[in-house]
Amino acid sequence: MKAPIKEQRISTSIKLNKKNRDYAKAFFKEYNLTLSDGINIFLAKVVMDKKLPFEMEIPNKDLNKSIGQAKNGELIYCGDNLTDVMRELNS
């Protein structure tokens, strides 16, 4: 039986958000993985599926406006229950 061919590994440099990097390192450590292992798993999933491993949507103009209002602390609408909120959204 032939030994598996070892894949060539290269070194690369990327800029990461420190908080996300630190969290990811701790997360992967729980699975006995390095940050490099985690990034390679992500890349392998992208290559295998030929898409991002999660849904990604571009917010429309109305959603961007609502996000801005929420960030500014403006009251958009508060209902007592989901039925009231949906009625307001559909009006």
Q: Would you give an account of this structure?
A:
Helix content is 53%, strand content 0%. It has 91 residues and is an all-alpha fold. Among the domains are: 18-49, no CATH class; 61-90, no CATH class. The protein is elongated and about 70 Å long. The model has no long low-confidence stretch (mean pLDDT 86).
Overall pLDDT metric: 86
Globally, the shape reads: elongated
**Which H/E pattern describes the elements?**
HHHH
Strand content: under 5%
Contiguous low-pLDDT stretches (5 residues minimum) are none
Number of strands: 0
Distance between the first and last residues' Cα: 69 Å
The helix tally amounts to 4
How would a crystallographer describe the biggest sheet? none
Q: Helix coverage percent of residues?
A: 40-55%
- Computed Rg: 22 Å
Based on secondary structure, the structural category is: mainly alpha
Q: What's the layout of helices and strands?
A:
Blueprint: H1 18-30, H2 35-49, H3 61-71, H4 82-90
In short:
The protein has 91 residues and is mainly α.
